[in-house]
Amino acid sequence: MEREVLMAGIGGQGVQLAAGILAEAATREGRHVLSLGTYGGTMRGGNTDATVVVADRPVVSPPVVSRCWAALVMHPRFAAPTCEKLTPSSLALVDSDVFATAGVELELRGAARIDLAAQALAREADAPRAAALVLLGGLCSATGLVPLAALVDAMTALVPSYRQEHVEANTRALTVGHASVAPVRTQAWEEAAA
């Protein structure tokens, strides 16, 4: 069973970090993982997206997928290509703070939607730059893709030595996101066993 997760936003929102954490956490959990991140030519404000494929056996999907099992949608400016890959069986976690401010409606192609005030939750957790991690924690709570402890361990391992002051804030962001979303669908790997 393969679980394709797409993440889309603008540079500086933490999309690439969230993708790296998910890939590392899934690897630590004994899953097979393929990850690909892309971003535009600007560091802040340009497009950024990532694909992480997590599987219970060797991955056969290419790094560019035509459909996805779940998506984290961080910003309306570059959301359309990700939303086009959603299906009625997909799950989309949307940063409702950004979309409410922008007044943009998303076409989710029948996918289940979870609105999460990721920006506000990140600020409340004293982690104002970690909204992507709030959404990632929410996704893993909703689906059981990887446990919260694996996310925290992976994040701690990935944060470079010169950024260690962010570990506690990132942990709070992952935790508040995880606590904010109840399981909403059959868990990722229970479906595989069925």
Topology of helices and strands:
Elements: E1 2-10, H1 15-28, E2 32-39, E3 47-55, E4 70-73, H2 80-83, E5 91-95, H3 96-102, E6 112-116, H4 118-124, H5 131-143, H6 148-158, H7 167-180, H8 188-193
Parallel strand pairs: 1-4, 4-5, 5-6
Antiparallel strand pairs: 1-3, 2-3
Helix pairs in contact: 1-6, 4-5, 5-7, 6-7
Mean residue pLDDT: 92
With strands numbered from the N-terminus, the spatial order across the biggest sheet is 2-3-1-4-5-6
Low-confidence stretches: none
Query: Could you say what the CATH architecture is?
Result: 3-Layer(aba) Sandwich
CATH superfamily: Pyruvate-ferredoxin oxidoreductase, PFOR, domain III
CATH topology: Pyruvate-ferredoxin Oxidoreductase, domain 3
**What oligomeric state best describes the polypeptide chains here?**
single chain
What structural category do the secondary elements indicate? Answer: alpha/beta
CATH class: Alpha Beta
Q: Output the helix-strand order.
A: EHEEEHEHEHHHHH
Structure explained in plain terms:
The protein has 194 residues and is of the alpha/beta class. It has a single domain, classed as Pyruvate-ferredoxin Oxidoreductase, domain 3 (3-Layer(aba) Sandwich). Helix content is 39%, strand content 21%. It contains eight helices and six strands; from the N terminus they run βαβββαβαβααααα. The chain has a six-stranded mixed sheet with strand order 2-3-1-4-5-6. A hairpin with a 7-residue loop joins strand 2 and strand 3 (47-55). Helix 5 packs across helix 7 (167-180). It is globular and about 35 Å long. The termini are close together. The mean pLDDT is 92.
